[in-house]
Amino acid sequence: MNLGFIFREGFSGFSRAKYPFVVSVVTIAISLTLIGVSIVMGDNVFSYFRNLQADFDVQLFYNPNATRDQQAAALEFCNTYPGVVYTRYISKHEAIAVFQEEFGENIFEILQDNPFPPSVRIGFDRYHQNTGYISGFTASLEQLPGVETVTFHKALFLKLTSILRILTMVGGIFLLVLFIAAVLLSSNTIKLIILARFDWIETMRLIGASDFTIRAPFLVEGAFQGFLGAVLAMGAIHGIEESVIKLTSLNLASRLIQFPEVILILLGTGIILGILGSYRAVRRFIYLVV
Amino acid sequence: MISFKDVSLRYDRGAGVKNINFQVQRGEFVYLIGPSGAGKSTLLRMLYMDIFPNTGYVEVDQFNSNTIKRRQIPKLRQKVGMIFQDYKLLNDRDVFQNVALPLVVMGASRRDIDRRVTKTLEEVGLTHRKHYFPGELSGGEQQRVSIARAIAKDPLVLLADEPTGNLDYGVAQEILNLLWRVNAKGTAVFMATHNIELIKNRPARTFRLSHGEFKGELLP
Ligand SMILES: Nc1ncnc2c1ncn2[C@@H]1O[C@H](COP(=O)(O)OP(=O)(O)OP(=O)(O)O)[C@@H](O)[C@H]1O
Ligand SMILES: [Mg+2]
Fold it and tell me: What is the ipTM of this complex?
């Protein structure tokens, strides 16, 4: 098959039907912008909740009479437990500072005594952040000598976990719907392009061109539109991010147009979107035209 | 090479053709005449398998209308050249590219395409119009471009549906002469027309069609 011909016909499609071409590119650009902005928004909301969840770590309180060795053994147990990403020892002294920072009172001055036992904050990596696993950990930790109690805000943790799960699901469905809508929209404009090339299709049929030769240029044209749409969308998303930062002085934790892989994914999504749109239009519609 | 066997075709609204039987051999020149609406275009469309008979079958070379698969139709059309009253040229490319189109689609090499298009343009006398666009040509020249496009791939048969319908008498005569030159090089020509005056000067085997029925054939 003559690939050169298919690409030449595909890329020259622009000059044959300018208006539908531009409409299709803009459609794809708007859809990709929506998709991109939703990803940025979703990701920022997601990381907000994720950070919140990290605040509800496990905290181990030592028995006030625990020996140095007992404390060290318990700390070592935590540090070597699979999934633990950090431990932070908070001495009696530090505990007073933490309390003062959070409540603005110096408890030592009020009570003339330090009521806080030394403690350890323990964080898990995201693969081990499930309540069953963490509960197992706290149960064995509580058995160790010198350990008074281990706190774990299970209910809150669970709530946050389910919020994160729902966010992921709703976001995913929303993106899928956007994607499908974009394919449908662009396939309708491709139909206009096919109509505009009625004579070309008829002639190609008569001279013995295969179905593939007739259809492939439209797929090439769709891919080209998707590419241009993605480039436009990246400009738009970048602009939107910039102005959000400027206007709200909000610190976006995650931004889209930052990593080369995100740029490649957007370009790829655009191209796939363009091809799917054309494919849908071309599959049946070409038969109906001629 | 071409044969119609008990072919009938009815369009949805009626009309069509009934009980057609005939054969055309390699290298023959055959006219198909009959008044408007007789079914001439219908027969030609069945030959390039754009439409299919309801009963009977059409055979072109090794292709049979009853057994041909959709994806084989392009193969058939690469062996059958077609020209029409309205030329069906692509207006966005020049004469050379129009004539090259079937060769490009068949995947011929660039050298091959150059050689064959140049030779064919010479045969139809359009070498000097090579880089003109269809819109810059007269009707007679456009029809010669479409003939060049049809014969560039060296078809077994050239199907011509009213090829002179839009042309003045003198120009029509030139086109007919050109078709005879094409035939002299070995390509069969099957030409539908209702211009009986025109073909009188170039007699050949002639099928008569009326109201969708075969009314016998005249020999030269
Ligand atoms: N697509 C179609 N649908 C329904 N009827 C059709 C169709 N094409 C042709 N017909 C009918 O079939 C009959 C034969 O038509 P056809 O086009 O074969 O005639 P023709 O001999 O080529 O006429 P002309 O000399 O005017 O070109 C006519 O009565 C016509 O109205
Ligand atoms: Mg006709």
Answer: 0.90
